[in-house]
C-alpha cells in the first residue's frame, strides 16, 4: 500500500475542529466546491456522513463518488483519512 500524504498525516494527527472540507485527504478545491454545494462545507460534516454510513468503505466511497464525482483514488484517500482519524480520536 502506498504511503500517506502530508495532508493525510496532518489531518489525522490532530482534533477535527472547524477544518474545511478541503482539509480531508483526497479532497481538493474542485471536489471541495462540489461538496460545499451539497451542504458538506466542513470536514466534520463529511465525518458525520461517514459515521451515518457506519464507517462502511464501499458505502462511503459510493456516496462520495455520487455526491462530488470523486474518482477511486480520491474516495479511497478520503475514506482512509477519516477511518484513521476515527481510530485515533473516537
TrEMBL record:
Keyword Nucleus: yes
Segments for region (Disordered): 1-21
Alphabetic keyword roster: Nucleus
Cellular localization per UniProt: Nucleus
GO molecular function, one term: DNA binding
InterPro entries listed in its UniProt record: BAF, BAF_prot, BAF_sf
Keyword hit for rRNA processing: no
GO cellular component: condensed chromosome; nucleus
Main location: nucleus
PANTHER family recorded: BARRIER TO AUTOINTEGRATION FACTOR 2, BARRIER-TO-AUTOINTEGRATION FACTOR
Protein name as catalogued: Barrier-to-autointegration factor-like protein
Amino acid at each position: 500500500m502506498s504511503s500517506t500524504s502530508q495532508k493525510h498525516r496532518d489531518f489525522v494527527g490532530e482534533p477535527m475542529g472547524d477544518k474545511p472540507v478541503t482539509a480531508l485527504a483526497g479532497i481538493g478545491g474542485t471536489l471541495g466546491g462540489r461538496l460545499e454545494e451539497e451542504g458538506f462545507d466542513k470536514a466534520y460534516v463529511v465525518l458525520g456522513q461517514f459515521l451515518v454510513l457506519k464507517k462502511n468503505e464501499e458505502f462511503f466511497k459510493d456516496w462520495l463518488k455520487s455526491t462530488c464525482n470523486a474518482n477511486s483514488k480520491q474516495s479511497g484517500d478520503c475514506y482512509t483519512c477519516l477511518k484513521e482519524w476515527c481510530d485515533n480520536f473516537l
